[in-house]
Amino acid sequence: MMRRKNVVIFGTDQQRADSLGCMGNPLARTPHLDALAARGVLYRRHYAANPVCMPSRASFITGRYLQAHGLVDNGIFLPETELTMPEVFLRHGYATASFGKLHFQTFKPYEGDVSMESLRRWQAGELDGWEGPYYGFERVGLTVGHGERCHGHYGRWREKHFPGLKLGADHAQAGEKFVAFSSYKSNLPLDAHYSIWIARQAMEYLDAAGERPFYLNVSFPDPHHPFTPPAPWHSVFADVEFPPPHAREGENEGKPKPYREAMRGNPFPTDGGARFFPGLAGRAYQQVVAHTYAMVALIDDCIGQVLRKLESKGWMQDTVLVFTSDHGDFLGDHHFLFKGQLPCRSLLHIPLMVVDPDVPPGISDEVCSNVDVMPTLLASCGLEVPETVQGVGLPSPGCPPRRDYAFVAGWSKASHEFHHYSLYKDRWRLTVFPNLRDGELYDLADDSWEHKNLFHASACRAVRDGLMEELLYAVGAAEPRRPRLRSDW
């Protein structure tokens, strides 16, 4: 009897779709991911369900929209009642494990803190010895936070094996420091770097794998800011001249209030910090982008190591491989840096490739969402898709899509005015900010980077109204399928 297919998911944090060679970027150094894309299906119009970390990750792992799973913004726990993808695989006899970032609970401390991803609890040693279970993973090896000071299982390991490291901007390696943009050359030794640790943990897990099929999550905290790659990676793109960002003078004056506020201050202090930085130009901009590309290149190299381990074990023909991210970074687009509750392509358009031994390689240009990955992987492995899942399965190249739009929703701790719904459909992106009674409309065929807002243009009124009707249906379809009942009355 043939062994049931394994599943390995490679994930990153804050990585744009256009950061890969296979997505048309001639400056990217992603040979392993480009080769992976050539062996599988590359989804060129894949969108996140939300533009910040925790809500998007919750949608990916549950196959459900924000309204259904309840994690509508960073700082909220994913309810433990949610049925996650690893939990479904676990119930069907799979070994399940995750190494790296998960972010289903909060990083920052709070009164009565019980988060398993709390920086304070990890630094205090309160979670020493704990390795799971966690949201369907039998075993976890966490990295908590970002940059040089990542903690969790990784942090405890680093404290033991590399004590007394001098980190931070004051101890950065020689070179320019742009502290306001969190960009400098890290003094963290490569062997102590979290990306290397995550890859090695995954390979050790594969070496010890038994007879059970496995569901393995390998999740890197980069290329999220701070933009601080280690040597020698921090110098790989030092001599590269990067093109300017996708930004036009005055473009945000024609957009809803959150964009205009982000040009004048920091309206998203607890939602990613997206805002206008007057000094992000010239050498500062070039270094931020160079360091981002360097972090991606290091991740690509680490993924290559894990792929070689799978090959050495003879499992490549028995394994479904996935690469994706949770959201992107503005990186200067629309004059902003970082992320926030702004439903832009720069943040929502994320990479996705799936290599399935039973599916021919190809390219899909149909719109799809990260809620669609869970039902695709379950079906690929012959498992029934739970009725709670709202994703419909990813489109197959050359076949009509099962759903012709990608739906996005967003809330914000900073202001109820930032609440938004969006729809990517055909050649359009429509967004509504219901509490502002305002919105956005872009013709992606003529304005692929979403600069000219047509929401109030009389010539586009019919298109807008038609998409508004479609958005109403999408909002309704994103509601929970049915409530959880304790009694029928």
Structural features, described:
With 489 residues, this protein is of the alpha/beta class. It has a single domain (6-398), classed as Alkaline Phosphatase, subunit A. It has helices at residues 31-39, 53-62, 66-69, 85-91, 119-123, 153-161, 194-207, 257-264, 282-312, 345-348, 373-380, 461-477; strands spanning 6-13, 41-43, 46-47, 95-100, 139-142, 214-223, 275-276, 319-325, 336-337, 352-355, 362-364, 368-369, 405-410, 420-425, 428-433, 438-443. An eight-stranded mixed sheet has the order 5-4-6-1-8-10-2-11, with helices on both faces. Strands 13-14-15-16 form a four-stranded antiparallel sheet, covered by helices on one side. Strand 4, helix 5 and strand 5 form a beta-alpha-beta unit. The mean pLDDT is 96.
Overall structural domain count = 1
Can you count the beta strands? 16
What gross morphology would you assign?
globular
| Quaternary structure annotation | single chain
- What is the topology, as strand order, of the major beta sheet? 5-4-6-1-8-10-2-11
Order of helices and strands: EHEEHHHEHEHHEHEHEEHEEEHEEEEH
- Please state roughly what percent of the residues sit in beta strands, choosing from under 5%, 5-15%, 15-25%, 25-35%, 35-45% or over 45%: 15-25%
Mean pLDDT: 96
Level-2 CATH architecture: 3-Layer(aba) Sandwich
C-alpha termini separation: 48 Å
Structural class: alpha/beta
Q: What kind of sheet is the major sheet?
A: 8 strands, mixed
CATH superfamily: Alkaline Phosphatase, subunit A
- The proportion of residues forming helix, as a percent range, comes to 25-40%
Briefly note the CATH topology name: Alkaline Phosphatase, subunit A
CATH class assignment:
Alpha Beta
